[in-house]
């Protein structure tokens, strides 16, 4: 199968579109997103994905003439952090999830995490 007929993994198109918007560094219309994608997607498919990403709170949209222009609400590290928070939200086994996450960190990442937590604990006006 070629082009449009091939199925993509769940979220792959969303990731591609987010990457296009991050690289752009400015709001893009649906047509601009469509022409910058490597995949050959129908305009309506791009509209659907942009709408879905907006409803998830990942994109902001503003009227631009008769269309909308879309831009990410956060940079890529911010979006990754948001996904991590979403995984944790509402989990009854948060302690176990965090313990496994920390246990799987490299020594370098663990050291960085300790440093960041130490800085957070020493910020004025915050409970540590």
UniProtKB/TrEMBL annotation:
Q: Which domain of life is it from?
A: Bacteria
Q: InterPro entries, per this entry?
A: BlaI_family, WH-like_DNA-bd_sf, WH_DNA-bd_sf
* Keywords on record: DNA-binding, Transcription, Transcription regulation
| One Pfam family from the record | Penicillinase_R
Q: Does the keyword Transcription apply?
A: yes
Can you tell me which family this protein belongs to?
Belongs to the BlaI transcriptional regulatory family.
Q: Which protein are we looking at?
A: BlaI/MecI/CopY family transcriptional regulator
Q: Which organism is it from?
A: Actinomadura fibrosa
């Amino acid at each position: 199968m070629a082009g449009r007929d091939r199925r993509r993994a769940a979220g792959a198109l969303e990731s591609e579109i987010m990457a296009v918007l991050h690289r752009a560094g400015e709001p893009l219309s649906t047509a601009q997103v469509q022409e910058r994608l490597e995949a050959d997607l129908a305009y309506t498919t791009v509209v659907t994905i942009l709408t879905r990403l907006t409803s998830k709170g990942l994109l902001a949209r503003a009227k631009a003439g008769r269309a909308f222009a879309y831009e990410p609400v956060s940079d890529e590290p911010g979006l990754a952090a948001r996904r991590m928070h979403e995984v944790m939200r509402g989990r009854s086994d948060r302690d176990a999830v965090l313990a496994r996450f920390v246990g799987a960190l490299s020594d370098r990442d663990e050291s960085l995490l300790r440093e960041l937590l130490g800085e957070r604990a020493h910020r004025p006006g915050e409970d540590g």
